Every structure is written in structure tokens, then in C-alpha cells.
């Protein structure tokens, strides 16, 4: 009898490799680079600044920047008192970033803590927190800030704490909703049944699971605080002299807009690029961390 032909099994085809995750778009890379530059300038202001931000050069008052007939002595020109615009810009970046970072962290801590309290105790505590959230969201923050600063005076600590109350209700709503969602899931109930304290439950288990959403909210609130500080300083109720900030530089430069526009343009462009960079990074992080878009 003829033997049956041998059949050789075809080799199993390997699964197609997963496509590599695309890196950040060019605009997001620009945002990261600009923020890194701003942080470096803020941290090394005493090193990179060519002059003290209060140093006067009355012989070179309203000197134009390089490219407009100015000299290398003052690359970005001088203001009405002969103060170097570049030096004042460097120290203004430090002040504005300090205020923005401090206020953003304060708002996130206050809002997240109250949101966890509402989710944990429920009942009257939850109703009180949510009523406070609704009351805070219904008041125009700029009017409230103007009233507080006009009544209590100006100080850096008061300004940071006041701006920290901006958008705290956003963090409270997010933290409460996500904490309630986590409490309905198995892991939170299991940890609670094992006898974990509320500090351990929310700090070690709930917070890490909602941290990505809170971080995205912080990146979206950060440029709002920069603009608020700039607006208050522009109106004369923010950072007070001899200290300087981006908003105060814009406020002082408005009187010389026609004769010396560089006094206003340098901090204004810095504000625009900084807020744009943080907004681009926040949008990218939101898309990156959203599980429905993966």
C-alpha cells in the first residue's frame, strides 16, 4: 500500500507587534521645553540676572532693546527709571511661578481634602461641603479678590492664599465623585473591612487611583492663576513694589506703550507663552491618561 504523504504543519504566525505609542506632538514638546526654561530661570535668577532688578541707570532711561538701536548693555532695553527689563523679567518669572505653584497646590489640597470629607462622612457633612462648593462657585472670584485685598492690604502670603481658593470647588467635586466611585468598588471595601484607618484608605489607596485626574485639573488651573495674578498686579492690588511680577511689569509698561512698548511686550509675551504651554501640556495629559482614548 502506498504510504500517506507526510504533512508539515505551517509555522504559527507571530502576533503582529503592537504599534509603538506615539510621542508628544511638537507643540507639547515646545510646552515642556518652555516650562523647563521658565523653571530654570526662576531657580537660577540670582545667577543669570545681569543686574539687580532694582538697580537704576538714569543715563539710559527708556533705552530700546537690541535690534531697535539699543546696546548690548541692556539687551531688552530699560524702563522709565533706567532699570534693566531683562533683569526685572527674570525676577518677575520667579515671583509669578512661585505664586502660581503655591496657589495651585493650596487649592488642590483644600479641595481634595473637603471632597474626601464629604465622601467619607456623607449626610450633613456632605451637604455642608457641597453647599459651600455651590456658594464659592456662584461668587465672581475677581470681585472677591479685589474686595479682600482692598480691605486687608497687600502681602505675598495673603495673595498666594487668596489665589489658592480659586477653583478649589473643582477639586472638591472631582475628589468627592471619584472617592464615592472608589468606595463602591471592591478594593476600597476590602481595605475598609481589613480595618484600615480613613487616612490609610484615602491616602494609600483612593488618592493614587484618582491622582491622574487631579494632576490634569491642576495643569488646567495653573494658567488661570497666572492670569489672575497678572490681572490683580495690573490693577495695582497684586505684587507690590519693590517686588515685581509679570503682571506688575505689564501694569507699569502701559503708560509707556507708545514710547517704550518693550517694557510691556516682554512680560506680556512671557505670560502668553507660559499659559499656552501649560494648557497644551494639560490637554495632552488629559488625552494620555483618559482610559477611553487608549
SSE layout and pairings?
Blueprint: H1 26-43, H2 45-48, H3 85-121, H4 123-138, H5 141-152, H6 156-164, H7 168-183, H8 186-193, H9 198-234, H10 246-253, H11 262-289
Helix pairs in contact: 1-3, 1-11, 3-4, 3-6, 3-7, 3-9, 3-10, 3-11, 4-7, 7-9, 8-9, 9-10, 9-11, 10-11
Number of strands: 0
CATH class designation: Mainly Alpha
Mean pLDDT: 82
Number of domains: 1
Sheet with the most strands?
none
Helices, by number, come to 11
Helix-strand sequence? HHHHHHHHHHH
**What is the approximate shape?**
elongated
Notes on the protein architecture:
This protein has 294 residues and is mainly alpha-helical. The chain has a single domain (34-39, 78-293), classed as MetI-like fold (Orthogonal Bundle), CATH 1.10.3720. The chain contains eleven helices and no strands. The longest helix is centred in the middle third of the chain and has 37 residues, at 85-121. The chain starts with 25 loop residues before the first helix and ends in a 5-residue tail after the last helix.
Amino acid at each position: 500500500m502506498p504510504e500517506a504523504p507526510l504533512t508539515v504543519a505551517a509555522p504559527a504566525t507571530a502576533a503582529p507587534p503592537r504599534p509603538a505609542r506615539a510621542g508628544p506632538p511638537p507643540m507639547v514638546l515646545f510646552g515642556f521645553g518652555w516650562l523647563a526654561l521658565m523653571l530654570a530661570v526662576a531657580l537660577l535668577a540670582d545667577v543669570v540676572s545681569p543686574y539687580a532688578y532694582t538697580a537704576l541707570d538714569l543715563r539710559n532711561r527708556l533705552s530700546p532693546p537690541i535690534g531697535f538701536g539699543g546696546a548690548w548693555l541692556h539687551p531688552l532695553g530699560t524702563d522709565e527709571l533706567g532699570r534693566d527689563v531683562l533683569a526685572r523679567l527674570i525676577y518677575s518669572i520667579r515671583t509669578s511661578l512661585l505664586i502660581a505653584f503655591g496657589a495651585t497646590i493650596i487649592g488642590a489640597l483644600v479641595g481634595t481634602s473637603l471632597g474626601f470629607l464629604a465622601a467619607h462622612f456623607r449626610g450633613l457633612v456632605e451637604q455642608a461641603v457641597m453647599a459651600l462648593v455651590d456658594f464659592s462657585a456662584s461668587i465672581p472670584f475677581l470681585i472677591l479678590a479685589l474686595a479682600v485685598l482692598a480691605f486687608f492690604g497687600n502681602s505675598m502670603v495673603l495673595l498666594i492664599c487668596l489665589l489658592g481658593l480659586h477653583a478649589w470647588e473643582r477639586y472638591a467635586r472631582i475628589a468627592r465623585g471619584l472617592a464615592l466611585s472608589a468606595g463602591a468598588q471592591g478594593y476600597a471595601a476590602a481595605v475598609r473591612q481589613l480595618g484600615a484607618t480613613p487616612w490609610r484608605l484615602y491616602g494609600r489607596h483612593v488618592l493614587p487611583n484618582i491622582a491622574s485626574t487631579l494632576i490634569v485639573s491642576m495643569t488646567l488651573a495653573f494658567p488661570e492663576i497666572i492670569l489672575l495674578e497678572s490681572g490683580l498686579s495690573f490693577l495695582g492690588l497684586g505684587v507690590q513694589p519693590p517686588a515685581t511680577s509679570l503682571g506688575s511689569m505689564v501694569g507699569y509698561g502701559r503708560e509707556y506703550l507708545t514710547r517704550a512698548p518693550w517694557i510691556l511686550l516682554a512680560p506680556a509675551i512671557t505670560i502668553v507663552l507660559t499659559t499656552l504651554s501649560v494648557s497644551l501640556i494639560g490637554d495632552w495629559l488629559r488625552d494620555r491618561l483618559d482610559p477611553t482614548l487608549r
